[in-house]
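Late entry, written up from scratch paper. The run itself happened at the end of the previous shift, but nothing got recorded in the book at the time, so transcribing now.
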Amino acid sequence: MVEPAPPIDTRTAADIVRDLEKSLGKKPEGITAALVHIFARYCELLITRLNRVPDKNFLAFIDLLGASRLPPQPARVALTFSLTEGAVESLVPAGTQIAAAPEGDDKEPMIFETETDLSVTSVRLMGAFTREPGRDMWGDRTALVKSPYTAEPLSVFEGDKKVEHSFYIRDPELFALPNVEVSVKFSVTVKAPVSVQWEVGREIDVLAQGEVTLTAPVSVQWEGFSLNQVDWNFVTTPEQDINLGRLPISAIDPTANFWLKCSLINSIIAGQTQSEEGQLLLNQLPFLSNIKLEGNINETGLLPEAAFFNSIPLDVGKPFLPFGEKPKLGDSFYIAHGQAFAKAGTKITLNIDFISIGGRSNNLLLKWEIWTGKWEKIDEEYKFTHNNKNLTATISFSAESNFKISEINSVNSYWLRITIIEGNYGKEAEYIPDDTPPYKPAT
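Output as recorded:
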């Protein structure tokens, strides 16, 4: 667009009236005042035409060059079409007319029409993001999409947030154990100083039942438990053992979806050949292998959560008879615990104080079993300790298979069963008449 030429004379009719009054030395009155204003108006018209001379000369110069002005063009405006509720797709054909409400002194609406066909769908642009690989930064530019006409100007090629680089580890069974102390073992190879941060968190929105198939959770609340920063300042290292300590998990909840998170503190720089402090090039990224998780729980003084003699509930907080008042072949004693029996390979020790063990046969045999989907026999070790009053038994065993939750007498838990399969704990008293002579005469 050509800039307009500056005016030759900027005076108005009022300016000319002031100049005339100054020349007369007084303010005119009556007919004189009327003649002054008429004269000033004519002068204003002449000045207006005089100020158009540069434009006319410019047009005449353009005509000499053989150029001409463009013809009038219709106004163009951006239009937004929205589907009605429930509609999935619609077509707006070319030539569709749209009326704009009249503005100002206009009495008739302004009519616009579309130039090309437009397919309107229910798909909407929901977000916009920018990525700056050279600085390992990103930015959220969704405001430009949601409010394109009112949003503040934003840079679309420059990020303002550091890109997160993390990997996640999850073991549903191990992390479901309360008060578990977890260690991570792995082999790592690095080519430059690397700093990482370990964290543990819980996924609030459960994405799926059972195993989560995503490579990382999408909605995670990190609960403030984190380790100190770990630095890998070596070129090649043997297996590392990172002790994460006791995880902040207070209850058995296999669906809680706890995750271990290892975040890279360094920035990853692309498109460069040299890195500065705190940066890594693409060819300097660490390599991890042979990742192993180990859990350790050392709890003592745990009471059974439930116990039964056959189908009769027992109160283990008081003296009780594990096989009832009259033990017999096939009687069973059940013990349940959701924590101690929850993981295969756990070494479990039962400490039992006997007030009295009564008489038992020499061939007494007990069968120890755990529920793994079926009753599976385990090997146990006994150790007895005597004192002046009681006999204490320490029974230890390790379950090679995973306990599985089962319902015993309407109680769902992990179960241990001890059954009498041979012998007895004594027989009931019985009367056997003796008819053997000699007889003694009655007196």
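Helices lie at 13-24, 31-51, 53-64, 142-146, 172-175.
(Scratch paper discarded after transcription.)
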